[in-house]
């Protein structure tokens, strides 16, 4: 009986950790560094913004958005327009923008069926 209770407690602990840490979600892109899946989900779920910044490094800014039947891509274009970039075209997962005759390529990656992660290069000019 004690053995069964011990197993039941271990399984309960594992399931708690499994759901708390969001282990059932796919891994985040490697460029995101130390940010956790749980942290990313909390930011997007508790934000009123449609495009949420999740991290940045010296070269890129990373944003996440709800897919909502392709609305994420419109949110990206609107975000870039506000920053002074003009949308040029899309090829696969790459979105081409121009600013001051310089080309900027924003890449997108589906993260689960609900979310898209965008990698936006920083403007070094």
List the helices and strands and how they pair.
Layout: H1 2-20, H2 37-45, E1 51-56, E2 60-66, H3 71-82, E3 86-91, E4 94-99, E5 102-111, E6 115-121
Antiparallel strand pairs: 1-2, 2-6, 3-4, 4-5, 5-6
Detailed description of the structure:
The chain crosses the membrane at residues 7-25. Keywords: Membrane, Transmembrane, Transmembrane helix. This is Virulence-associated protein VapD. The chain starts with a helix and ends with a strand. The protein is built from 3 helices and 6 strands, in the order ααββαββββ. The longest helix has 19 residues, at 2-20. With 125 residues, the protein is of the alpha+beta class. It has one domain.
User: Helix and strand string, N-terminal first?
Assistant: HHEEHEEEE
Strand order across the largest sheet: 1-2-6-5-4-3
Instruction: Please tell me the overall pLDDT.
Output: 85
Backbone shape: elongated
Task: List the total number of helices.
Answer: 3
- Measured by DSSP, the beta-strand proportion falls in 25-35%
Compute the number of strand runs.
Answer: 6
Biggest sheet features: 6 strands, antiparallel
Structural class comes to alpha+beta
Indicate the low-confidence ranges by residue numbers: none
Helix content range: 25-40%
| Amino- and carboxy-terminal Cα gap | 69 Å
Radius of gyration: 19 Å
Tally of individual domains: 1
Keywords: Membrane, Transmembrane, Transmembrane helix
Transmembrane segments: 7-25
Organism: [Anoxybacillus] calidus
Protein name: Virulence-associated protein VapD
